[in-house]
Amino acid sequence: MSHVGPKRCPAxxxxxxxVDGTLxxxxxxxxxxWNEAGKLHGGLSxxxxxxxxxxxxxxxxxxxxxxxxxxxAEASDEFVAAYLATHKRLTGEHEAVVxxxxxxxxxxxxAREWLARGVPVxxxxxxxxxxxxxxxxxxxxxxxxxxxxxxxxxxxxPGRGKPNPxxxxxxxxxxxxxxxxxxxxxxxxxxxxxxxxxxxEVVDVRDLAGYPLPPALARTMAAQRAARTWIS
Length: 232
Fold this sequence. Notes:
Blueprint: E1 2-3, E2 14-17, H1 27-40, H2 48-53, H3 59-71, H4 77-98, H5 105-116, E3 121-125, H6 129-138, E4 150-152, H7 166-174, E5 182-186, H8 189-198, E6 201-204, H9 215-227
Parallel strand pairs: 2-3, 2-5, 3-4, 5-6
Antiparallel strand pairs: 1-6
């Protein structure tokens, strides 16, 4: 198990889990819809490596940053809403054909183990709540993470998603804990930074045995680790 930063919580008050790429292998399923939506909205596009580099970002922030890179201007709120509506529709159409993303068994087992030990578990995710709840249920994790134990970026004020610490602070508060008393499980750089800034013990699940690690994610992981400057 690989930790991010020196913090350890021998007896955590809660275990906080990202969802996409941490509990369910949904990231490869989401990628095609970004470029397909882009063809319909101004020609926005991203490579697979760029896609993984956006891991953990709130969807509106990804859209705005992608618009800056591809168009060279700020996206309007109306553009962001239209683009994400198309992305959501296309993702749903793909999922209707191929089915929901599979569970990532190595991290799901950790969540179940904490729960069995009486430690509350909470999801802290940048994903859309409709996707998150459906995917957790399909992965057999609906009882582990019921809706009231899920915090999404949309539950926070605008601009306060990962890498800001707010989502992990909110997730900890749901079960009456301080984030500094919690362990957080993540797969993306923005999530690591958010959990670290919240004071959590931070675990990088990508180093767990059995974790699905495609080449593009491995490249992104190595580059982001080498460029990391936010750990003091």
